[in-house]
Amino acid sequence: MRNHSAITMFIIMGLTNDPQLEILVFIFLFITYMISVIGNLTIISLILVDSHLKTAMYLFLQNFSFLEISFTTACVPTYLYMISSGDKTITIKACFSQIFFIVLFGATEFFLLAVMSYDRYVAICKPLHYVTIMNNRVCWNLILSCWVSGLLIIFPPLGLSLHLEFCDSDIDHFFCDASLILKNSCSDTWFIEQLVIVCAVLTFIMTLVCIVLSYIYIIRTILRLPSAQQKKKAFSTCSSHMIVVSVTYGSCIFMYIKPSAKDEVAINKAVSLLTTSVAPLLNPFIYTLRNTQVRRSFHDILKIMLPHNKHVDLNKIVILVQLTLTLVFVAPVATGETEERSSPFQVGRWQF
């Protein structure tokens, strides 16, 4: 039995103890964080200013981008500050606050992905009634329901955890991981652990069932379309969402496939690093690189910003930006997937 003492601060051990490697980690996290925020803010801004993007699909995408910014901001900046200042301590209250926001944003994303799959179902299976069914009021009610569901998931286990006593201050991670917090507790955490499992499984199963059912109907409808061109267009409408769903749920499943105790901490930290930095960075490009409407909107914004410069070819600028982003971020992921299947597709983003 561990000795009990009054612990008021946790020590975040981080990703490495090597000062030189820590500098590289800082640079990597800072660059990916900034690009992730800029990319998602660009999507949010384009949807706000372009009247052609005022549909349910883009409203959900806008909120998804906001969640991505919020999720990565809940994890990365704190660790960047710790590296730059050398102060790896964090108060218990701040630690629980970080856990609250990480789980809230992560759980809300699961529910929002389910709502987005329903939106695709209505668009493909009931196109004539799409505008009526997915009106502005319904969309905002669905978004609000996602946030409320996320709050309901986090409050019970977190509320019980606030009364725990701790006898170990070290957290072998780069942010406050709930499972490690429970291991540091001197109190009986059995009920909290079971409650966490129940909440996680319920959220996972409920949202996955909604997504699977939606795509069963979507695929059935697409296969009934008369022409190959119509089928291709319908599949392309859902392809971005299917990729993000595969990444999110695949990573969640990966997190529950526990490695040996010796490798568990290292793998968990590596996977979490990709979760909090790479996945939020890639999602804007997954959704927009092949989206004609978003590209057209970006083209129009550039035209407004550069109205008098006749020597600037806006089409070339758009193509150059897209090719650069693809080569820098998408191509390395594609090559890495063939070499090692534990790339961004095995990123677990729901840390309970």
From TrEMBL:
GO cellular component terms listed in the entry, alphabetical order: plasma membrane
GO molecular function: G protein-coupled receptor activity; olfactory receptor activity
Membrane-spanning intervals of the chain: 23-49, 56-79, 99-118, 138-155, 195-218, 238-257, 269-289, 317-335
This protein's record includes keyword Transmembrane: yes
The G-protein coupled receptors family 1 profile domain, residue ranges: 39-287
Membrane topology: Multi-pass membrane protein
Subcellular location: Cell membrane
Protein purpose: Putative odorant or sperm cell receptor.
Membership in a protein family: Belongs to the G-protein coupled receptor 1 family.
The name this protein goes by in its record: Olfactory receptor
